Amino acid sequence: xxxxxxxxxxxxxxxxxxxxxxxxxxxxxxxxxxxxxxxxxxxxxxxxxxxxxxxxxxxxxxxxxxxxxxxxxxxxxxxxxxxxxxxxxxxxxxxxxxxxxxxxxxxxxxxxxxxxxxxxxxxxxxxxxxxxxxxxxxxxxxxxxxxxxxxxxxxxxxxxxxxxxxxxxxxxxxxxxxxxxxxxxxxxxxxxxxxxxxxxxxxxxxxxxxxxxxxxxxxxxxxxxxxxxxxxxxxxxxxxxxxxxxxxxxxxxxxxxxxxxxxxxxxxxxxxxxxxxxxxxxxxxxxxxxxxxxxxxxxxxxxxxxxxxxxxxxxxxxxxxxxx
Amino acid sequence: xxxxxxxxxxxxxxxxxxxxxxxxxxxxxxxxxxxxxxxxxxxxxxxxxxxxxxxxxxxxxxxxxxxxxxxxxxxxxxxxxxxxxxxxxxxxxxxxxxxxxxxxxxxxxxxxxxxxxxxxxxxxxxxxxxxxxxxxxxxxxxxxxxxxxxxxxxxxxxxxxxxxxxxxxxxxxxxxxxxxxxxxxxxxxxxxxxxxxxxxxxxxxxxxxxxxxxxxxxxxxxxxxxxxxxxxxxxxxxxxxxxxxxxxxxxxxxxxxxxxxxxxxxxxxxxxxxxxxxxxxxxxxxxxxxxxxxxxxxxxxxxxxxxxxxxxxxxxxxxxxxxxxxxxxxxxxxxxxxxxxxx
Lengths: 324, 343
Description:
heterodimer; A: alpha/beta; Rossmann fold; 2 domains; 6-stranded parallel β-sheet; 5-stranded mixed β-sheet; 12 helices; 38% helix; B: alpha/beta; two-stranded antiparallel ribbon; 8 strands; 10% strand
């Protein structure tokens, strides 16, 4: 066990998965030179056959990943940036996420798509700042957004071992964070949320880069209210039980997501709470999400759109003193 | 051009089998069309009547372990690979006994035991999957070749161009088998493809490409055998375009949609049916060579009719799945519980 950066944990997971299983291969743009650092040294260690640079042809190499996965490989398909799923929806949704069903279980697609430039890195403007996980959740694709270095490694290793296609996002703003990360391999199961901080007054459900923001808010409220922070970890599989158990205890909930509000992951969580926990609630469910607006290059406009600590703090205040 | 074989170069049993598979494809599809018209099955028919030779000639050129990926028009491909005809009909019927348990229907077919990696309803979508299987073969050095069938319409899809490119730079053991049946629904390939032949595009990827008569099953067999051998031999991807023709509409409801706005003439269809029909051409060639006589063909015809009738009965006698099965076998792992439509 040692203190490692989030990105270091990701690098370890890539390397250890390839070392443990010859069927793990890596496809993506600039992976041999490791532009995003995730695949540093892998081409040398495992060969260019298994660590394959692709042309800029995302639907094509995603489809090739799907085919290789159907044939027994466990491809990691790396997308450089968060908007690549827009290009590859056909291969992800209509193929990767459908083939097990369409073939009546005769084929599986154990492919892991990784998105190292995930979240809103800052200053990248409208076409490189999306959080596409809710769109893929809508179509039933497993979505993973680790918020800690420990989870980055353990969840990625779970995703690679999972026999279904999984998309794993590594929010850029978290990649320098450090934490305890075991040297050996370990997995964090998909579908289990984590309680980052216990409390019995307010529940904040958060994911990805909003988890540290939510935790900071919980610290802010120390002495005034005990805020429980639930890290979704995997928006799909969604750990409904963990959310409802917390709401039962607190009766007040703020749902935070990095994606858009309309049909977002937070909307799904809020709907489930309304459906199953209405009589536990002492305040309306509040959501803090990205505004339903594109992310501008302009810094003030970008800040206006993205969820942040101040807005989560306001939301916690509001559920503590609700107006109906 | 490859070394052309004559009828006499083939075992009679192979010739009989080629004919049987083409005839089976034709009759299975005609039975499917009847079932669609009668409202006896859930979906439509995307028929390859007229294209039987490219399917049978190609699949005959493959080894047992080789794979194919197909399209929305793949009944001929899967039958030529050996998919059980009863299970195929049951799949058309959406029955539990279908090759995909009734989940995929006529154009999402998966039959790993027969080397049917996939047929996909989305134009061009299965082509990269074939290349993925070929990538896997290359890494494992397993001597297997994958044939990716696609049509003239798919030849214009971006994902197909991307796949051709990656297959070429990586020297993947794959044969791109373009069945140019002249029309993507109503859009002719003369209009949608700027080059004389679709195979001309292979040159852009430094890939051997050829256009062949897709109506002559022995020509297809010869030419595809050569391409498969080259791919197996480490010479990289190969491109073969079969010139062919579909007798029926893009799908069985096409006429209802098009009404009085035809995109081809009856004369054109008749011209292909009379002068370039793959079954007729084959029969003429084999009888002219004195290898088989009419009565031998008639015997096969009768046997095929019987097989198809039995398959239709098998489909009719098979059970539909319970609706509740819909929430099962969506994920390979049990860590997601799919929600029902109400709770």
